[in-house]
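Problem 12. The chain below contains 276 residues. Write out its predicted structure in token notation.
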Amino acid sequence: MWQHAIITGGSSGIGKEIAKLLATEGSNISIIARNQKKLEAAKAEITATILNPEQKIITIPTDVVHREATETAIHQAVKEIGTPDLLITAAGISHPGYFRELPIEIFEQTMAINYFGSLYCVRAVLPMMEQEKKGHIVMISSGAGLIGIYGYTPYCPSKFAIRGLAESLRGELKLSGISVSVVYPPDTDTPQLEVENKTKPLETKRITATSGIWSAEDMAVEIVRGMKKKTFAIAPGLEMTLLDKLHSLLAPIIQWYMDLIVVQTLGSRGSTMNNE
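Solution.
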């Protein structure tokens, strides 16, 4: 059992479901997210699952895009509960679309939240974990952090960056008593996916439709299971497992398949326009 888990993006989706699981096992939890109303609703859900009434569940409204505010939030959590032995960076956004049509601000914001938002948290907690000589850092990447996907030009690079950070840190921290994990979730039924679908190109919808959608609850179970084993790369499901283990070998096949879907989509569009 972890004594104090700090979870960014813990007000919804995978982050919230992980928090609920940890609460059932007795962990004290700090959840950090932007929206105070969603934080309070999440706190009520998490509190309903606690193992004993002495557990602390606190919320801190913060946008992880701001480094100083993020550091302040981390230090507030430490002041109220103590040094964290678990950090989970689950805060993230995705705004798919055609590369040439997306404003540059979307690319900047996506990298700022998904990558730098994780980096700021890791840098804030790491000195404390090093002093205690223990801890576990879990960064949520994506299947889109293993292979580039049509329509995800802002998102994929940010998740590739998470993967690179995790792989680099793993080696640096291996002898310090601090574990690192990176998670590659497939499509999961979360508020983020709902928002993505509003701007997702038709080609992207057809590509992603070839894989099933996980529930946030099932995804959290898989992630926590991997955390307990101190697995470095947590890749839920057969598709993500194969992509994680064999992505360099599989990439040409996957890219060919995605290209085929794009060509078919363009062809069907042309037929529709001609019929009109």
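Discussion. The CA atoms of residues 97 and 128 lie 40 Å apart. Students who got a different answer should revisit the alignment rule from Section 12.3.
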